[in-house]
Structure formats: C-alpha cells, structure tokens
Amino acid sequence: MMRSFTLDTYDDLHGSATDPAVGSLSFLNEVMGRYPKAISFAPGAPHTSSYDDLDLTRYIDSCRRHLAQRQGLDQEAAQRLLFEYGPSRGIINEVVADALNRDHRLGAEPSDVVITVGCQEAMFLTLRALFRGSGDTLAVVNPSFVGILGAARLLDIDVVPVSEGTTGIDLAELQRLCEEARTDGRRIRALYVAPDFANPSGTRMELETRRGLLELAYREGVLLLEDTAYGFTAPPGDTVPTLGAMDTSGSVVTLGTFAKVCLPGARVGYAVAGQRVTDRETGDTRKLADVLAEMKTMITVNTSPIAQAVIGGLLLEHGGSMTQAGRAKAELYRSNLRLLTDALDRHVADRAPKVTWNRPDGGFFVRLRLPVAVDMALLKRSAADYGVLWTPMSTFYLDEGGDRELRLSCSYLSPTDIDEGVHRLAEFLADVAQ
Amino acid sequence: MMRSFTLDTYDDLHGSATDPAVGSLSFLNEVMGRYPKAISFAPGAPHTSSYDDLDLTRYIDSCRRHLAQRQGLDQEAAQRLLFEYGPSRGIINEVVADALNRDHRLGAEPSDVVITVGCQEAMFLTLRALFRGSGDTLAVVNPSFVGILGAARLLDIDVVPVSEGTTGIDLAELQRLCEEARTDGRRIRALYVAPDFANPSGTRMELETRRGLLELAYREGVLLLEDTAYGFTAPPGDTVPTLGAMDTSGSVVTLGTFAKVCLPGARVGYAVAGQRVTDRETGDTRKLADVLAEMKTMITVNTSPIAQAVIGGLLLEHGGSMTQAGRAKAELYRSNLRLLTDALDRHVADRAPKVTWNRPDGGFFVRLRLPVAVDMALLKRSAADYGVLWTPMSTFYLDEGGDRELRLSCSYLSPTDIDEGVHRLAEFLADVAQ
C-alpha cells in the first residue's frame, strides 16, 4: 500500500535520531562511498585474507559435537541446540570462559559470561543494567569508540570525557571528576576504557596506570567497562595483563568481540560480569551476568546459536584459544602497522615535517597530528584531489578535541595499497599541512 | 581473579532488573525446570519435527548464490558478504520485501525493511525511535506478549493496557485513552497489537475491527506496531488481510520474525517502516527504516549475515514465500490445536463444567477460564500432583486481569502427549475447578 502520510518530524523521535555520534559512521560511509577509487585508511575492518580458510560448516559441526559430548546429548538433540531458542546467556559460555582463562588468566567462570550480539550489545546491556536514572554519569576515555557513545545516547545516559593523554588515561582528571560528581550529589558510575591499542588512538595503557586505575576505581566505586577488542594484536611474548586479569575487587566488567579475532559476520561477543548483586530485602545474591542475561531477553532474546557455534567451533579448532585463533591475523596487522609507520617516516617526515604520529605496537590504528584544522571539508579535498581517505579524529571526541588529528587504519589494506596510500597522503600533507 | 566484592544492591541497577515482566519468563522456566517429567503446555516453542529437513549449509549457499547474481559479485566477493560486517539494515531485505509482498500484499520496498535480531530487536528499535521522553505512552492490547512489555520497561516507556475483548481490541476504550491523554497534555504514541492469533490469548481481530482500528489510528495519530508472528498459521484460503496490507496512511509498522515460520536459531526478524520522517529545518526526508537502521548500529551493529543467509536461502528454496516455507508447520499446528480443543471437549467438559476455553483457528495458544484463582501456587500443585504444566495468564496482563485464566500451548507436543496432557489436566481441573 502507498504510504503517502508524512509521519513525523525529528522532534517527534528520540533524540538519538539526530545525534552526531549515532549518525557519524553512516555519514562518513556516505562521504567515502562517493570516492570508490580512493585508497581508504578509514574503516577498521578485518583483512579479507583472514576469510580465506573459513569453513562455517566445519566449525558448526565441531561445536555441535563438542556440546553433545559435554552435555551427553545424541546427534539429534545436539542439532536441535542450534535450531531452537536457547538460554539467553548463550550456549558456548564454557568455551569462551576457557579461552579467556587460557589467554588472559581472567579467572572467569562460565556463569560469569553472557554471549552477546557482538561487543556492541555487550556494551548496551551493561549500560542498561548499570544506569538507573539521573545522577549517574558514564565516564569515557576521550577520544573514544563511537559505539559506546551511541549506546549511551540511545539510553539517555550522561557521558563525561576523561583525557587519554599518553599513558592511556589521566587519573588525576578522573579523580577530580569523581569528586566533583560527589559534590553535586551525583556519581561517576562507570568508566569505558579500551586499554590495549584503543580505537581510535592506538594508545596502550601503561602497567602502572592500570594499577592506579584499578585502585581509583575500587576506592571511588567506579565500575570499569574494559573493551578488549584489539588485545590479541599485541606482540608475541607480551605480558601486560588486562584490567580484568589484574582485578581482585570485582571492579571490572570485561567486554569483548570475536569480530576481529575470528570473523565479524557471526556477530558474537561477550560480557564477563561475575560481580554479585544483592537483594536488600532477602539478602539473596545473583551475578550481574544473570541480570544482563535476563535483560537480554528483552533486546535480542538470545544470540543466534548457529552464529555461536561458528565461533565456538573456530575456537575449539585453535586449542580453545583466541590468541591462537588470531595469531596469523595479529602478525598481519602488526606487519601492516610497521609498513604504515615506516612509509610515513619515508614519505611524510620530510615533506610535511610539522605532521607527527604515534607508533603503536598493536591494534589497527595510527593517529596523525596536523598543524591545521582537520574536518569534513579537508577529508573531501583529500578524497577528491589526492585519492586517499581517512577519518577525522574529531568524530571520536566528546569535546572540541581532535580538531587537528586524523586516524589511519591499515587493517584491511595490502602492502602495495599502504605504500601507494601513504604516497598520496604525503602529496596531500605536503600541500595542506605546512 | 576472585571477585569477592559485592558490587551492588538492586537499588543501584536499572529498574528493569527487578521488573516482573522482564523476569517473568526466567521465573516460569525455573519453576517448570523442577518438573522435568510433567507434560508441558507452557512454552510456545516450534515443533521439533520442523527441524528435520533443515540444511544450514545448503541455505547459506543458496542465499550466497542469489546475492552474487543480484549484485553481480564473483564467488569470493559473495562469500565475503557473509563473513564481513554488513549494512545495518541487512543483506536480505529484497528477499524479505518480496516475501511480504507475495504473501501479504504488503507493498513493501526493500528500503522499508530493516533486518533485526528476531522480532524482539525490531520491537526494541521501533520503541526507541518513536519514544522521546515523558508525555508519550505506549498502548498495548491486554493481555500481551511479555516481550513488548519488557522492551518498554528497559526503555522507561509508560505503558497503558487496552482490553482485547472478543474482537481483538476494545476500540471505544482506545478512543477514550487517546482523549484522556490529550486532556492531560500527553499522547498515545503507538499501539502494540498482534491481530492474528495473538500470544497469549489466541484471539484473532475481526475484519471490521481492523478497519475501525486503522481509522482511529489515523485520526488520532497513533502508530500501530503490528506483530505478525502467528499469521502464517491461518487456515488455507484465509483472506483476512494484515493491518499493514490494509494501511493506506502510513499508520502501521510491521514487525515480524522468522523464528516460527523458519527456525528460531537464526534469530532473524524484521521491521517494515516506510513512513517518512522530515527534517524541520531542511525539509529533507528519510524513511523511518533509515532511522531504525542507524540506531541499530548502536545496539547490535547488524544482524549476523550468516544467520540472514540461512533465512534468505530457506525462503528462496520455498519460492520466496513465508507461507510456503511455513505450510507444513502451519498444518501441524492447526492439527495440534484441533487435537487439543477436541480433547478438552472430551475430557474436561464433563468433569469440570465451569471451565471454558476458546477455539482459535490458528496460532499456538488456547485460553482456559477457570472458576478459581490461577496463580503460581496452583501451577505448582498442577505440576507436582498432576504432572501437567501451563502458564498463568496473569503473567501477560498489565493490570489485575487474567487471574482466573491459564494459557495452553500445543505447538511442540506430539498427539500422544496432547491427549495424555489433557487427561492429566482433566484430573487436575476436576479437583480444583468446581
């Protein structure tokens, strides 16, 4: 039927419908879609070579056999696990807990884990559970992954930025924010932080800062929402523990995704939330994970068991280890990072000496600082006149920061494209960044 | 690490953490889990025989070949569609729009469709987009599917019940609610309704009532959120159109799931929202579906393309028709419904003459009215002493209604179990319902 009726103006919709954070990625994609021939350092997408050996059917079968054995099910009953609704907390929780314990010594029990539709749902669920109304604020390390900002916006949660600095977070600033909130009768309820090669800056949090952050969080009652998406790209022999692994006081909720370490198309992630929640009247306790699982029934019911089996099988075929499942990819990403920063050294350092960049050991991203304003107009010029795309860092800042920065992602480019892309970037920067 | 720290009391979490609607299904499942040998008329789960011929690999391949052909992609690029992130609105939108047009004459364009993680996410997203804050109320036909109540609770949306009555909705009551809201400076923003064999009552909305509802909705500016989950179970030759198919004024958002007509394990559903949203400043318009897709990036990013391919392939193998894909299942469910109501006639009518029930032509559910209070205590007695489970209807009521009603679901039982279950039910009712 014809729908001739103009329903509404944006004034009638939820405020997130016109929020820049929620719309930013669509907007960027739209702009970038206009320059299909440009070399793009924009998207943080996995490298396509990581899909070459994927075999969905084999993974699903592996996982089904594993679950059948663990649960004493016959072939048919195990098959049904994948076809039916399942528990909202997930069906591969044990596989995931094992992997987190093996790879990160997290000490997670399967009942601490909720399997989610990617890390995005893990963030969304955790925010929903933790924020009950006015007076509670979410702190985020600034600049920040837009997914957490958008989720907070959809839930009308107040957000306050904390500077990332060079150590991963400015602890004095966070302390001050906690005190200011207290003075105002509010509180910093939680902090979103990605300590390992954060998107967008590539920054890694120092060990000493991790210790200080955990102490501060415990002292101030701030829950740390630790996003572990890029941790697997750390160099071999890396020994910096995650906040979750260092946590002895239940201050950390671990949030993760299998999008990068396995594949995005399964849309599987997790939250690890073993904290106890107490019923004040009865004294009964449940895990925060139980609360998250219950709330999940009202958002997505459960994560597709078929998709869970893809990830479960892939992990099992790699010794139940995310690190092992992601090893070849991590090498590729580190190699791409080196190619990128080496090419910047060779081509950009001389021609645009006022431009600087960081040199992360892992992750997908490098941050460039320019002596001029970096905005959408500059991006369009870079795309149209120089054939090279990137992301303005201001997209990821909650405040006015990042207005002279851009983000380069090298995760899905070939060595040839990286080199040619940096050539074009050098031309561009030589012209605009003197 | 040990998590010895007791984080919080429920007072510190969002109110939905202790909301009966959100917790109701977990609670019921917990009670029912204690009686594994009882015959259960409780869960509205699909029949296991509907899984017999499923072939995930074949469906995925079918859908991939179809998408490759439509989009002019080679084998490798088409494969990547399933492995990578994809557009948040989905990759099988055209297949789904075609099916809705073929089966329901909905007149949907692919760009009206957002593919979601089941109908639950479609409801959640639609509520988020439509409700911007205080003053807007969601009306729901009472009794109601708990999924919509839970979603509204998670989003702090006010909900008001409208009686279902025998015609599917009490239009005079809805009209009165709209007027009362207006008087109070509020409005009824939307109505959730499942016109075809609603869960939990099995009621079907009459054609005349559908016409009246559409008129009222247009006149009062109430958006109708039409849940179509059980429509495919209508008898052959059925000609009652959906609200969406009758809609000429953009008053209907169609919400659906492939859980029942295909399989639950894919977790794929959809929203159809072709309504126009206008930017007051620029005059530009977008579809409501575009807004939903953008918001989805902040909840689940996108629906697993692998899961979408399972559903897309299954539909394509059935002539691109949900009706055809669900035909054998629909016959089974109607047969089970007849077996159930016939058995109630034979075994219960004489022994508990004060008990009455409805006789739906489709859906999964029959409603029994008892002359006594139906509560958890009665359910426990039924389970422990008579070996038969069901769901108290009060679970699905927003007000005090349904306290003498119970719901029977027959979707996943065998003929033998239905007969034996009704025998046990007759024993139980003969004892308690005189």
Summarize the structure.
The structure is a homodimer of 434-residue chains. Chain A is α/β, with parallel strands linked by helices. Chain A has 15 helices and 16 strands.
Task: Give an overview in words.
2 copies of one chain form a homodimer. Chain A has 434 residues and is of the alpha/beta class. Chain A is built from 15 helices and 16 strands. Chain A has helices spanning 20-33, 56-71, 75-83, 93-104, 118-130, 146-154, 171-183, 207-220, 243-246, 288-296, 305-316, 322-325, 327-351, 376-386, 415-432; strands spanning 6-9, 39-40, 113-116, 136-142, 158-163, 187-193, 223-227, 252-257, 269-272, 276-278, 285-287, 356-357, 365-369, 388-389, 391-392, 405-409. In chain A, β4 (136-142), α6 and β5 (158-163) form a beta-alpha-beta unit. In chain A, α2 (56-71) crosses α3. The longest helix of chain A is centred in the last third of the chain and has 25 residues, at 327-351. Chain A is globular and about 65 Å long. At the A-B interface, β1, α1, α2, α3 and α5 of A face β1, α1, α2, α3 and α5 of B. β1 (6-9) of chain A pairs parallel with β10 of chain B, so a sheet runs across the interface.
